[in-house]
Write a structure and sequence with these properties.
four-stranded antiparallel β-sheet, alpha+beta, globular
Length: about 280
């Protein structure tokens, strides 16, 4: 490739990036103007956190937007959303006419290497050939059946799989999961093994909000003595919030969600393919 051609390629690439950033800024401004008009909103900030090219659709880019708002009652709200644009029009929802596939199915934020933390590694060797990340709620009905089977299968081969687990209690659906998760983290910090797997054996009403009842059910299965004080230490809260922050950055809002070697696995079966 000649020097002139290389320079032209670089100029075109930079031009496209500048245009993409300009589009992102326009979407930011639009969202700020739109949501600020809501009378219940006191203040609002919209920030583009990422952009990803839609490989299956030429010239379309997915813009990841973070909306942080303070409501009139002083409640703080943060939301992640994806908008799509080809540089001329933009929309939150688009569908492929041929396949009836939503555009959001064509894009996903990659799992960053910095998210693989030692405190999240529950089975396998950190240098294993495949890294599997699982986000789960222990009271999610599908999770209770699926997650233990998957983990048990992968833990048999520690050289092939490094299994990283991230607590994601869906508090609006399963309030009891919040205290269960904190109890699990507190017990792990005491050096107890297999806590995550046994967590799925705890029988408690998902709507339960009485912490004492939740811990009683947890301690019965774990044969432990975790207290309310134990689950509210700074270290426990920090771990749980760190897991939730990673989920938020990846726009994970459902369980179970799996990433295989940094890629979102919607089929939840790719861990078998890499085997």
């Amino acid at each position: 490739m000649s020097l002139m051609l290389k320079l032209l390629t670089i100029i075109l690439l930079l031009s496209s990036l500048v245009k993409a950033d300009a589009v992102g800024k326009k979407i930011e401004n639009f969202l700020e103007k739109t949501y600020s008009a809501n009378p219940s909103v006191k203040s609002l900030i919209v920030k583009m956190t990422n952009k990803v090219a839609v490989k299956e659709k030429k010239n379309w880019i997915a813009y990841y937007m973070e909306i942080s708002a303070v409501l009139k009652d002083n409640r703080k709200v943060k939301q992640q959303m994806v908008w799509f644009s080809n540089g001329e029009i933009f929309s939150k929802e688009l569908f492929d006419l041929k396949t009836e596939t939503p555009m959001s199915d064509y894009v996903a934020i990659e799992f960053k290497n910095e998210y693989y933390k030692k405190e999240n590694l529950i089975y396998g060797n950190k240098n294993a050939r495949n890294k599997i990340a699982i986000f789960s709620d222990p009271l999610c009905p599908f999770c209770r059946d699926f997650v233990p089977k998957v983990i048990n299968e992968m833990k048999k081969d520690p050289s092939r799989y490094a299994v990283y687990y991230y607590h994601l209690p869906l508090s609006s659906l399963h309030p009891a999961a919040v205290d269960l998760v904190k109890a699990a983290v507190a017990l792990e910090m005491k050096g107890i093994k297999d806590v995550v797997l046994n967590l799925y054996k705890v029988k408690v009403n998902a709507k339960e909000k009485d912490t004492k009842k939740i811990l009683k059910a947890f301690n019965k299965v774990m044969k432990s003595n975790i207290t309310i004080k134990d689950i509210n230490t700074k270290a426990v809260i920090k771990h749980v919030k760190a897991d939730e922050k990673i989920a938020e950055e990846l726009m994970v809002n459902g369980t179970p969600t799996m990433f295989v070697n940094n890629k979102l696995d919607k089929s939840k079966r790719k861990y078998i393919e890499v085997k």
